[in-house]
Amino acid sequence: MAGADIDVFVREVRFNGDGLVAVVAVDDKRGDVLMMAWMNEEAVRRTLQSGDVHYWSRSRGTLWRKGETSGQTQTLKSMAIDCDGDTLLVRVEQKGVACHTGRRTCFYREWREGKLVITHEVEVAPDTLYGKK
Amino acid sequence: MAGADIDVFVREVRFNGDGLVAVVAVDDKRGDVLMMAWMNEEAVRRTLQSGDVHYWSRSRGTLWRKGETSGQTQTLKSMAIDCDGDTLLVRVEQKGVACHTGRRTCFYREWREGKLVITHEVEVAPDTLYGKK
């Protein structure tokens, strides 16, 4: 996608005081929410340019192409923006699992009748994802 | 739900420096993302206690029962928490529309081929929602 086009989009984004916008990632096929993360302006631009979803890691303070270490990449299918411009909704083709715990979604714990219940099991061992084995 | 049970849940939430946790609200029937907002600890507790979804309004600096002015309430169907505890995912029964613009979702603008396209039309006039008419 051309840079001038992307400028049009970026102008609609209301980055917060840290220069970040919240991003909700949804599995394009199944429609369920996989994760919530953050993008800075460069991550938004690289995602739209390349089709590979990039985020800003607040803990590491670096730009991060999803899956660059784990191989669990996200290919952008669509990007929407909310009414006040401070949250993006990306629909993605998720390769493998979205969560660093090896589950398909980060939202694998649900509150049921006074208890936190595990709703999604580990599909890939985290050690495999991060090259410790 | 009993207070002691809710304590168990609240201990899992990693509130940010402002005492807030991000919340993604999904329509329980259709499965689509309606909005992203924030809860403080009291909003989490009131939501779990009452079944009426409460948020913290960052712009107004107040606790806010969704729909208290507009009538467009959210009834909690389930609450999940992500791997690092800083985002909640609520499935809700949305009465009417979630967005203050009168659309069913706040994510009504999608990026398509270099343009922002309106994907959801206004269902209820905002003036009706907020009592100006």
What does this structure look like?
2 copies of one chain form a homodimer. By secondary structure, chain A is of the alpha+beta class. Chain A has one domain: Phosphoribosyl-AMP cyclohydrolase (Ubiquitin-like (UB roll), Roll), CATH 3.10.20. In chain A, the strands form 3 sheets. In chain A, strands 2-1-6-5 form a 4-stranded mixed beta sheet. In chain A, helix 1 packs across helix 2. The mean pLDDT of chain A is 94. At the A-B interface, helix 1, strand 1, strand 2, strand 5 and strand 7 of A face helix 1, strand 1, strand 2, strand 5 and strand 7 of B. Strand 7 of chain A pairs antiparallel with strand 5 of chain B.
How is the quaternary structure best described? homodimer
Q: Unreliable stretches of chain A, pLDDT < 50, 5 or more residues?
A: none
Task: Spell out the CATH superfamily of chain A.
Answer: Phosphoribosyl-AMP cyclohydrolase
Number of strands of chain A: 8
Helix content of chain A: 10-25%
Radius of gyration of chain A: 16 Å
**CATH A-level architecture of chain A:** Roll
Total number of helices of chain A: 3
How far is the first residue's CA from the last residue's CA of chain A?
38 Å
CATH-defined fold name of chain A: Ubiquitin-like (UB roll)
- Name the chain pair whose interface involves the most residues: A-B, 39 and 39 residues
Strand residue content of chain A? 25-35%
